Amino acid sequence: MTYKIAILGASGYTGAELVRLIANHPNMEVAALSGNSKAGMTMAQVFPHLRHLDLPVLTTIDDMNFDGIDLAFCALPHKTSQEVIAKLPTDLKIVDLSADFRLRDVAAYEKWYGNPHAAPELQKEAVYGLTEFYRDDIKSARLVAGTGCNAATGQYALRPLIAAGVIDLDEIILDLACAVSGAGRSLKENLLHAELSEGAHAYAVGGTHRHLGEFDQEFSALAGRPVEVQFTPHLIPANRGILATVYVKGDAQVIHNTLQSSYLGEPFVEVLPMGEHPSIRHIRGSNFCHVGVVADRRKDRAIVVAALDNLTKGSSGQALQNANLMLGEDETTGLMMAPVFP
Amino acid sequence: MTYKIAILGASGYTGAELVRLIANHPNMEVAALSGNSKAGMTMAQVFPHLRHLDLPVLTTIDDMNFDGIDLAFCALPHKTSQEVIAKLPTDLKIVDLSADFRLRDVAAYEKWYGNPHAAPELQKEAVYGLTEFYRDDIKSARLVAGTGCNAATGQYALRPLIAAGVIDLDEIILDLACAVSGAGRSLKENLLHAELSEGAHAYAVGGTHRHLGEFDQEFSALAGRPVEVQFTPHLIPANRGILATVYVKGDAQVIHNTLQSSYLGEPFVEVLPMGEHPSIRHIRGSNFCHVGVVADRRKDRAIVVAALDNLTKGSSGQALQNANLMLGEDETTGLMMAPVFP
Amino acid sequence: MTYKIAILGASGYTGAELVRLIANHPNMEVAALSGNSKAGMTMAQVFPHLRHLDLPVLTTIDDMNFDGIDLAFCALPHKTSQEVIAKLPTDLKIVDLSADFRLRDVAAYEKWYGNPHAAPELQKEAVYGLTEFYRDDIKSARLVAGTGCNAATGQYALRPLIAAGVIDLDEIILDLACAVSGAGRSLKENLLHAELSEGAHAYAVGGTHRHLGEFDQEFSALAGRPVEVQFTPHLIPANRGILATVYVKGDAQVIHNTLQSSYLGEPFVEVLPMGEHPSIRHIRGSNFCHVGVVADRRKDRAIVVAALDNLTKGSSGQALQNANLMLGEDETTGLMMAPVFP
Amino acid sequence: MTYKIAILGASGYTGAELVRLIANHPNMEVAALSGNSKAGMTMAQVFPHLRHLDLPVLTTIDDMNFDGIDLAFCALPHKTSQEVIAKLPTDLKIVDLSADFRLRDVAAYEKWYGNPHAAPELQKEAVYGLTEFYRDDIKSARLVAGTGCNAATGQYALRPLIAAGVIDLDEIILDLACAVSGAGRSLKENLLHAELSEGAHAYAVGGTHRHLGEFDQEFSALAGRPVEVQFTPHLIPANRGILATVYVKGDAQVIHNTLQSSYLGEPFVEVLPMGEHPSIRHIRGSNFCHVGVVADRRKDRAIVVAALDNLTKGSSGQALQNANLMLGEDETTGLMMAPVFP
């Protein structure tokens, strides 16, 4: 059978990435597309790279007809998403790509996002969408919250280590190099080519990045005690990809063994041989995450490096992976395309 | 059924691109890989982005076993290719990605490549691999010669116009912006990031580029008289893509109509609405070619702009498209993935 | 003596480039800076790369005091510039970097810019600022109009050839590769890193680019008859530089000789040996223009390639060169810094 | 007076950068250039961006005449440099840009570089060239060893803090983003544009990078006890610049005060206001180093970020700064040019 899919907010990068991926999915069909500011336009006008596809014209959300829609992806801005989703049919399966349902705690949400949540009951219902770790919950979920792309990268490096208790929980430093598409298609001076190209800078330094809310929630739950990491993202002149260099205290070989056994059989997470570490150029455009471990010269210190594509495994690919589970499809359907290199 | 595929010269960019594409093909399987200088290595070592695939180890060509192989792609360097192919089983279907069998004329080959051809009888047998224009010949061919990537781009812009006689044959100028992967993985100073990034320069200026041999052969055959174009390629700081800006004399509307009717129904060639023109960022990683026409302010002059991905539609995607035809598969199988943007 | 300099519109790229250059000038001092939308801010806040300089705070133009100012650079947007300059002290020396005073003809201005000129008498007074060709007029001018950056590049390739009558005036094609800083610091979707990087596209195709007004004016004046060129600019993923590939009909050796003798003794225009051609990476950040000539394989056709940095020789460097002349300084003062490579 | 300068190894990036800087120096003249593999060529052939300069032809080192030379810069490969310098006139002032004389200890040199030192007595004589901290020794030195570019960046962030005892010496992590020109003009696969662009990866992970030898030497000497830092460099797709993100334990305000008072009056080191941090795009092509401090959300943890241009402040600019001191010139002569942005 062919599932009918709606995409809300199809005029942004994650929306376009969803269309790209679904076009390669044998059992899904894009049945409705919204993009409020571009309603009435074709996708070919908004994203000429999708010109060859036969796609519905963009509408407003209000004009969308959800009859017969099997699942909706919401690729709307933060805060807008919760308001829109609260009004959608209550039996519609939804994968939300915004930040609105990532945090389970009302107070934590308000702390990191600065406003009270508009749909706290949905916040409770939502399942955190890091597929490899919430697979069973996702299968039966109606509403899945896509993770932050930085948050996903860091968790692939760290979750098994925290769960297994093989690293010092008080001494975790995540240093990330992030490509620019993670910031979306918004018109900001620091995203201009002339500003960013030949540049590199840290942002949200010192513990102010909202994805810390996810790290705190997930790592503390895993550890059974509060865990606070240090996290410094950097913007680099590349379009896709996040490279997380994670400094931990623990035995490198034990760490490698732990990761390897945790990800054994996982279709999308590749643990590299001991001592090797990944590059973002090797996961571009794909749903794969590469993880490597290197021992430091200092005893009981290790560096874990994880790489994924922020638009694919970090958001739209993860969303499709979750949608597959929610619809009873094989988790990997439409997602096994190899990375594009060079 | 699943066809068994061999790739000779799998350690270069076009070889890796073939593996990427075939991994997405439901009826093909990579059964043998050669890479003389990297024999004994796994593809994951040579191309870590293919790490998730279950692939044969690289061997030397001599060690390759062609029993049961349905088709071989040769992604070897120019001149090496003709020597190798001459020794392959004579009933093996072959798609050659080198320049060795693009020119039908022995003298033309020697003029452009500087050496006598080592397999002139095969040179005669080979079918020129620009699929849309040699489709029937390719279906029944044993040996297909992949076109040059620049040559392909220019021909998509010009062939229908020359065939229809709607442009001045003596006043054709092709100005190309070419991404760097077209130069392959060879270690040359001008291909270093520090040299190329923030740079742009013309090369093979004045009519010395070897792809002119293809333009001369094909355009003259189409016109039934000698046609010599001017052709200036430029290297730009991008990894994939060729943008051909073609200056012609003729009526822009007639030109657009001619292109539109020629490519009607073609799965991979998209003619844009009159007055629009393409960008390489919208065909990246895909087998699509976008073509646009704009009228110049000067009467009876038009600009035709064509864009394709040199590694896909310009070489490995084209090769797979041809292989599909040679094996009786649907031409588009494994090739309909949407471009990767951004 | 030290000249006191004012810069109006210092918060854009050409304004910042002027500050960079003047900081290296032994006899000039930045005495006043305006930036209406950033009034009250320091330059270090707007352009952190100028942090080490002791500069005046940005003011509004209305708050600027022109007493004691020897010369003002106007780096304001088109149309705003003419309105502002019309109200400046009538004895103030001015170098305007906008498009407002490039065209001498009132009707031509209105044709290309779509509005009647607000200061037609100043339009008549202004001297066209292509230093090498208007040197004497510039020395005695009060108001100099900086040329378009594309217009400058094309003219360095063509003016001597048109003046000498060594090329066919009806068959000139200018194909340009332009870096992104030429579009300024404005927030446009197609200037985002994620859109432009790994991209390349033509713009203003077909003869709609406003710099054609300059080409028409200057080339027709030189030839003593109307000359209309074809001109297609392309945006490439680089920050600085314009590469003009110019297709002309004429004898390549005569063309090279003509350029060489025309630019003999010019401090900033370098004619390369016959058959060589330039790259934008070799003029980055400098006031130099490199010009090369290559013969095409077709008789009596040649390719002239010119390269310059759009922000330096194409605008702010040219402006300073002109200011030097207007103030009686040596033309090269503060401008001999070598290009930055890599 | 004009000092006569020789540059040995002028065909690499640091050699070219020296020529660029000296061209802007009022009291220095490039009198001799060597480049063994390019002997007989002009600099315009090797580095077309220097085409406008009147420079000596490249010779072999053996053919160089040191009569009348006031100072030589050695921009030779590691290991070659010590062999060449050992044979130079013993009264010649020398600034070496290689790694050969950075380590004072014979055993440390052998440990990090894998071979016994060929000129151990010179190793003892050499002064470490981090100008701001060895100024007096450099003034009277005959042989100055330029620091590693990564080593310089890290030291600007850390030396004052270690000297003042305001951070935990056992918990220092340096995470660096390094532009590609630091790897020189050598032909390596991972330096190709097609490999590096759109990529990012760590290298020398786990404490194997040779610049650690410098960190160990300098930080231990400052602290009066062994100090071992963790250091992970990353290669990013940019040409110039190093961004060091340094994780330390200590009070952020104290750290900021310490840096600010240490660099008070330094012409090239700019400490940003508390809470701000630098970008490599704001120091490109200049001799400036920007340093910022941000408090982490976790008590007594801070992030210090330092940025400099690896080819200028990180090597050739530093070298010229030292040469100025050695010749009795003002330290800043020829080095005050503003960064090139965008």
Automatic annotation (TrEMBL), chains A, B, C, D:
Reactions mediated catalytically: N-acetyl-L-glutamate 5-semialdehyde + phosphate + NADP(+) = N-acetyl-L-glutamyl 5-phosphate + NADPH + H(+)
Predominant subcellular localization, coarse grouping: cytoplasm
Keywords of the record: Amino-acid biosynthesis, Arginine biosynthesis, Cytoplasm, NADP, Oxidoreductase
Pathway assignment: Amino-acid biosynthesis; L-arginine biosynthesis; N(2)-acetyl-L-ornithine from L-glutamate: step 3/4
Any GO MF annotation of the entry: N-acetyl-gamma-glutamyl-phosphate reductase activity
Stored SUPFAM superfamilies: Glyceraldehyde-3-phosphate dehydrogenase-like, C-terminal domain, NAD(P)-binding Rossmann-fold domains
GO biological process, one term: L-arginine biosynthetic process
Residue ranges constituting the Semialdehyde dehydrogenase NAD-binding domain according to the UniProt record: 4-141
Pfam families assigned: Semialdhyde_dh (PF01118), Semialdhyde_dhC_1 (PF22698)
UniProt-annotated catalytic positions: C149
InterPro entries attached to this UniProt entry: AGPR, AGPR_dimerisation_dom, AGPR_type-1, NAD(P)-bd_dom_sf, Semialdehyde_DH_NAD-bd
GO cellular component: cytoplasm
EC annotation from Swiss-Prot or TrEMBL: 1.2.1.38
Subcellular location field: Cytoplasm
Enzyme class: oxidoreductase
Function: Catalyzes the NADPH-dependent reduction of N-acetyl-5-glutamyl phosphate to yield N-acetyl-L-glutamate 5-semialdehyde.
NCBIfam families noted in UniProt: argC (TIGR01850)
Family the entry assigns: Belongs to the NAGSA dehydrogenase family. Type 1 subfamily.
Protein name according to UniProt: N-acetyl-gamma-glutamyl-phosphate reductase
